[in-house]
Amino acid sequence: MRVRCDTTTAWPRLHRHFEQRGRGFDLRQAFTADRARFDAFSQEAPEIFADLSKNLIDREAEALLFELARECGVEAHRDAMFAGERINSTEGRAVKHWLLRAGGEAGEGDAVLVRQALESMLAYAGQVRADAAITDVVNIGIGGSDLGPQMAVAALETFRDPGKRFHFVSNVDGHELAGVLRGLKAGNTLFLVASKTFTTLETMTNARSARRWFEEQGGRDVARHFAALTTNVEAARDFGITSTFGFWDWVGGRYSLWSTIGLPIAIAIGAAQFQDLLRGANAMDAHFRSQPLESNLPVRLGLLDVWYRNFHGFTSRCIAPYHSALKRLPAYLQQLEMESNGKRVDAQGQPLPFATSPVLWGEPGTNGQHAYFQMLHQGTDTVPVEFIAVRQPAHALPVHHELLLANALAQAQALMQGKPDPGGHRHFPGNRPSTFFLLESLTPASLGALLALHEHRVFVSGSVWGIDSFDQWGVELGKVLAQDIAQRFTSLSLNGLDDSTAGLLRRIHPPI
Ligand code: F6P
Fold it and tell me: Catalytic activity annotated for this protein (predicted)?
């Protein structure tokens, strides 16, 4: 039974605690007063160590947050997801991306389908890897059909087949596709058309243009040079693609890199490594399912997110991966969290009187230090920062990695400690919160665990807020209006348009 956070007994107690102890909380004093703070606020989880101790939270607040989660029924909601119940209530769908990484050995029903789909995708990936004539793989997809695979292929670059280049085309902006096509030869290219629905405007427009280009280049064998990754296999066949790899409506777009949408990843790193990616995620699933709330990393993070958003009132969170291969992680996490929890009504459609998803943003360190860290240290807003560091580098260049890690630690330290200076400009207030994630090395397994950790963390905060984290109705209106405006380029009509849109359209397309 789901109970919305603001109707619990823990909610007003958290408010009281925040007024008494949270608003004036000082990290420096907290460490002095509690020598066990680092241990109390660190958490081991599969493949990941997390230090939460530099956050603006005390043990009492965290205990109240666990009570909140229990009152909200977070555990029952989690169990309902893992039992395959239709917890995506506004779309009437189950939420089973976790099943894609559950191993499927002895399963039945959907687990059998998952295993078959995985086997056929991995076999195809193996064929492509062995085909030396294919030098370029172009993934055409957007949102979850782009961000996950693109992020993971970049993150796992050291595991990548050096004989192939990977390109990701998502935008309907033809500059992107044209730029990629410029460097390609039809006979050496494999296009993967990735779309859960196989109706998305950007993807279908790019896929049609790619096929036209392929034919204009003399390409004949569409069956060999195009494959589709979709739940809508029929539409892919109508498009003329015979190599199709299906998945199911119970895999949300932003949770789909574990499905056949992961084909570019499998081509890049091979079957064994792709299985390791799934294994790492599965280990985090097991942690999330079995650990008590108090030692459950996704739960602790999701509740911290609630604490920051609804009590401290922080509006954004900065993602700072201190590993250049994780450069697309912030964009991936943006979709994961903001499309999942950027909602203003609860699962029953009732307006919420409290805030939900923060804004996520970020860039790899140390680059961010020379751009926006100024604001993090001395700006007027407090922005919790999440450092993601990797202990073992995947290169042999001396000095670099120590400097990289020293910088990550120093930034977290500087944010917390600050530096008093009566002069004003050189004053660092400190007491600025951060979380520090440490991975032993960046491998398929640790990446899988990191991503599943974030999926579940988003689940926890969405669950406390009582929202449906698995729909995305907010993307629909713009799609409909874009279609309406696009047809005005030929109808030349401004009827019914607001003055601003009409004025802009007249300037963009003077015949109107
Ligand atoms: O418009 C948003 C969205 O539906 C995302 O949720 C999804 O990941 C993306 O579009 C792409 O959708 P599809 O995979 O169906 O092309």
Answer: alpha-D-glucose 6-phosphate = beta-D-fructose 6-phosphate
